[in-house]
Amino acid sequence: MGADYLEQDVVATKDGQLIVLHDIHLDRVTNVAKLFPGRHRADGRFYAKDFLLSDIKRLYVHERTTADGAPVYPGRFRSAGEVFRVHTFAEELAFIQNLEKSVGRPVGIYPEIKRPAWHREEGVDITPPFLKVLRDFGYTSHSDPVYVQCFDAVELVRIRKDHNCGLKLIQLIGENAWQESTTDYDRLRTTRGLKQLARTVDGIGPWVDRLYRVGAKGAIRDSGLVSRAHQAGLAVHPYTFRKDDLPPGFKTFEDLLEFTIDKLNVDGLFTDFPDLVAKKCTAPSP
Questions:
Q1: In total, how many domains does the chain have?
Q2: SS3 196
Q3: Which residue, 110, 113, 119, 127, is CA-closest to 48?
Q4: Could you list the mean pLDDT of each consecutive 10-residue stretch along the chain, which spans 286 residues?
Q5: Phi, psi of 133, rounded to the nearest 5 degrees
Q6: Model-level pTM greater than 0.85?
Q7: What is the C-alpha to C-alpha distance for residues 286 and 276, in angstroms, rounded to an integer?
Q8: Domain that holds residue 244
């Protein structure tokens, strides 16, 4: 589908294995509640950290659902009985390196360390084994086709300084209300915050909704975030571009791409529709 990089969200299991999973919970993307009823925590959620890898390998993976089991994106993949399983991080990287050989071109990786502070509270420091897996697969230098991303600014400093990591680092920028970490994302979006980030990371991954404002009569206006980041020497890779879930103010996916790629000059983007983005990027200028 033309993607240059493939993303892996990485979390830890009970026995310290690293798996690729959308977040720290299993219940919205697998049949864990059916296979392991009663293994949820007090909040009703099933945490990957409470299951051995051997347990997780028994699960079937499905499209993401809401708490009541409805598909988040009902117009997407319709199962015809296919069986999908949770990959370990190492299995995912082996798959991608084999994919490179089959398609005959480089395929980069864009792994995210999920909730590192939460993992430490649960008794596992996820970062050292995460970096070891990358080294095992040959990802060691800044020029390698890999971006390491995280919402936790403290963890990215730790990766760069304490672990002496030379890989490209991306600071994900969300909303403080999401409680992804204790990082103050409002501060990071300021000119001063971006300049401070540039001492550690190579770029930012902001929520696409923060790239613009909707003005009078629905006019889309640049928020200035991309230009501030570029002035600080940071690349900008916003998330997540979805044809079936457009951000407020945009009527079509094409309008969204035109604004962010042509007007804002973002350096890359996260999308569930890489074929449409690739088509836009390769289309001749009018």
A1: 1
A2: helix
A3: 119
A4: 95 98 97 97 98 98 94 87 93 95 93 98 98 98 98 98 97 97 98 98 98 92 98 98 97 97 98 96 70
A5: -60, -40
A6: yes
A7: 18
A8: 5-23+89-282
